[in-house]
Amino acid sequence: NAGVTQTPKFRVLKTGQSMTLLCAQDMNHEYMYWYRQDPGMGLRLIHYSVGEGTTAKGEVPDGYNVSRLKKQNFLLGLESAAPSQTSVYFCASSRPRTSGYEQYFGPGTRLTVT
Amino acid sequence: AQTVTQSQPEMSVQEAETVTLSCTYDTSENNYYLFWYKQPPSRQMILVIRQEAYKQQNATENRFSVNFQKAAKSFSLKISDSQLGDTAMYFCAFMKQWTGGGADGLTFGKGTHLIIQP
Predict the structure, then answer these.
(1) Cα-flanking dihedrals φ and ψ of residue B33, to 5°?
(2) Beta A54-57 vs A4-7: how paired, if at all?
């Protein structure tokens, strides 16, 4: 099993450009999450999904959109990138209640917006 | 909204010593989970230990144990016989459990950078 994978690993964007980050999991998890990590901060929740076709906003959703068309994939979109979106982005997927909601994280994507 | 506070930005101990990392949280919820995650220089997030709020018994995982004080909203992590490989950022995290059985995403503290000296 590959676990949780993220594509790409690194990306540099110019202000105003758009991009999509792809997260894929092969553990048949229902829940998936997108977080961002800035220097000196813990991870902050951007959006999450509790199942195929459903999404919800987290703590810092502004400037991002998400889609969960397939259970195994969770996409994070930046329509018009801003320097404030320079960050490391982590995707995670979660086991159900019977397994204590342990979240499995991807390796992260480092995004720089110039 | 929940908040998680880690008051120790950095700690340094000698190898084989015991170290305790502090975490407090603020919530009005009664059903929730608490976690400690480790982030080594590789950046990978690794679950260290998990505690369910309704369980009074403190969780243990080998050299790692917690002191969960629900009334005080405190959740500290104790690492016994510390090893060089324990050097990492440690994050305390809170997860609200829904009445129907689902759960929110994690709310993280800002982290404690733990350095184990040889």
Answers:
(1) -120, 155
(2) unpaired
Assign residue B107 a region (left: φ > 0; alpha: ψ between -120 and 50; beta: otherwise): beta
Longest Cα–Cα distance in chain B: 48
CA-based R_g, chain B, Å? 14
Measured between beta carbons, the chain A residues lying within 8 angstroms of B50 are: 100, 102
B113 shares contact with chain A (CB less than 8 Å):
no
Strand partners, B4: B25
* CB half-sphere exposure, A85, CA atoms < 13 A: 26
- Half-sphere exposure of residue B118: CA atoms within 13 angstroms, side-chain side: 1
Q: The tokens of A98 are what?
A: 């019977």
CA distance B92 to B96: 14
Segment A84-108, tens digit of pLDDT: 999 999 999 987 766 678 899 999 9
Nearest chain A residue to B103 by CA distance is: A101
Q: Which residues pair with B94 in a beta bridge?
A: B34, B107
Which residue from A41, A102, A105 is facing B44, i.e. has the nearest CB? Answer: A105
B33-45 confidence digits (pLDDT tens): 999 999 999 999 9
CA distance A48 to A31: 7
Tokens 């992590």, residue? Answer: B77
Of A14, A24, A30, A64, the closest CA to residue A44 belongs to A64
Q: Does B47 touch chain A (CB under 8 A)?
A: yes
Instruction: Decide if B82 contacts B19 (C-beta within 8 A).
Output: yes
pLDDT in tens, B56-79: 899 999 999 999 999 999 999 999
